[in-house]
């Protein structure tokens, strides 16, 4: 298989790679800057080349929303490792798994997602999935980064209401800029020690990372007892192993019987 990352990544790239190694895959690591992309080769021709030379699964991260629509004629599985501000499906699955580990159910789960919602594929994927699973999802943060159809809640109220407080960083690579110093951003929109002290007992802190410490979250909260930020990363490997097995055609787990087929 091949990992085609056209945007920087630490967690997604290397947890996919860890999952691939654990499953015994042979993995090609692709760097756009040392490939024929620098000569003008398109995404389609790049992916088609990997298919033609024998690769069985592609993992792709790309800055364009819905890049995969250009790859409809590729016949091998393509796993979306993030498309622009569109979606981040495996991040969403690992987030859901982390919530499920904690609460065992999504029905009525109160989730607030705070920060740069407009440019966040994590916010988009989590909204879609959590809505479908019956959670109550609200959004907070600066007004210029809201999205239509995303219900807003005042963050100071939300920290007392939520079971899950998910913080997002400012997506500077997509043109977002906070027109204030970091300290002011933290005070106005971030998860400060004071706000965290008002969270409900049992409520958890999440963040897809990378974290900009002391911007969207006080550095002391990143590894606090109620934080699941590094747990999310650990869970990312499990989720990506499951997604890879599905891509390679393993039968899905059937909950009613506990039958895992031949896997
Ligand atoms: N959460 C996430 O997608 O991190 P990376 O950009 O480091 O992969």
TrEMBL record:
Keywords: Pyrimidine biosynthesis, Transferase. Pathway: Pyrimidine metabolism; UMP biosynthesis via de novo pathway; (S)-dihydroorotate from bicarbonate: step 2/3. It comes from the Bacteria. One of its GO terms (molecular function) is amino acid binding. Residues 107-245 form the Aspartate/ornithine carbamoyltransferase Asp/Orn-binding domain. The keyword Transferase applies. GO terms for biological process: 'de novo' pyrimidine nucleobase biosynthetic process; 'de novo' UMP biosynthetic process; amino acid metabolic process. It catalyses: carbamoyl phosphate + L-aspartate = N-carbamoyl-L-aspartate + phosphate + H(+). GO terms for cellular component: cytosol. InterPro entries: Asp/Orn_carbamoyltranf_P-bd, Asp/Orn_carbamoylTrfase, Asp/Orn_carbamoylTrfase_sf, Asp_carbamoyltransf, Asp_carbamoyltransf_Asp/Orn-bd. Residues 1-101 form the Aspartate/ornithine carbamoyltransferase carbamoyl-P binding domain. Its EC number is 2.1.3.2. Belongs to the aspartate/ornithine carbamoyltransferase superfamily. ATCase family. Catalyzes the condensation of carbamoyl phosphate and aspartate to form carbamoyl aspartate and inorganic phosphate, the committed step in the de novo pyrimidine nucleotide biosynthesis pathway. This is Aspartate carbamoyltransferase. It comes from Faecalibaculum rodentium. The lineage of its organism: Bacteria, Bacillati, Bacillota, Erysipelotrichia, Erysipelotrichales.
